[in-house]
Here is the input.
Amino acid sequence: MKALEVKIKKEGKVFPGEILKIDNFLNHQIDTRFLDEIGQEFRRLFDKEVTKILTIEASGIAIATATARYYDFCPVLFAKKIAAANMSDAVYSAELFSYTRKQTFYASVAKEYLNENDKVLIIDDFLANGEALNALVSLCKQAGAEIVGCGIVVEKGYQPGGRKIREMGIDVQSLAIVSSMTDDSIEFADQPL
Amino acid sequence: MKALEVKIKKEGKVFPGEILKIDNFLNHQIDTRFLDEIGQEFRRLFDKEVTKILTIEASGIAIATATARYYDFCPVLFAKKIAAANMSDAVYSAELFSYTRKQTFYASVAKEYLNENDKVLIIDDFLANGEALNALVSLCKQAGAEIVGCGIVVEKGYQPGGRKIREMGIDVQSLAIVSSMTDDSIEFADQPL
Here is the structure.
């Protein structure tokens, strides 16, 4: 998505440790008109039946609800990030390590909202090591739900997350794939690295 | 909003301690078609110029972005909930006590995204003791921004939050005001209690 690459180059900020922040239009302040374009683009990329969109709090929520509009207002389900696994029979949970916060979390969803009849589009803002996306995939598998694909706004192509999930046979589409990043420049790739 | 009252009666769950959960359509799974109606209703209630919508992660994000659509896609800014106050010059922060989690948090926004030229509509899902809303009001005041009003999805009318914020002279509009709640029934009021 060319408009996204332009926007990242213009408004993104790079911090030490190859941390890319797009707080100006997605992760803190949200450009809601552009968000709508992101939703339309995911609809174009995944031109299939989707009964539910799954994401994880917090930044994924805006993107998922904007996308749901273009799937006839299908429900969005957002996994909660919890500090300890909830072993209740009422939830599915999957471990994930946050490299940003250097801490293990669990992604958790109530079983009643995800089942084997669901055709799920997974949506998230960033894909780097793939911890969050892997957890969301696990939640779908635990529920026996079909994974239509994974739509990502920004993938760090040189980190292993995208490859790991694609090797499971899952269709991962990223709107922008960063191929390299320095304090002064961000480069993009047209295809997964 | 009659449709909301009906939905809460039908799909809401009451837990011990007067905890109302609407996880079926707002706080975990999101009914995105209904979310759009909520956005339209806030637009009808606050028929004024709004340059920015301010909310707090996580559940407020979906409501805020759905509402922004009806203010010509104005930007949404979501305050981060952080465990300790960030004393950096780059942020405004305000303390809030979470009665649900029995813990003090800070709502934080980057100064660059909120200033004295902003006409802010504050949006949140629940209003009970008013801790979160009070923190969002404080962030606007610190920034010198004008507060157009506060749009709340569900207010627990018998708790003090609504009164406290209205006594500041701020226009608080709640789509549903719960007047009483037991395990078996939920009653609503047409006006703030």
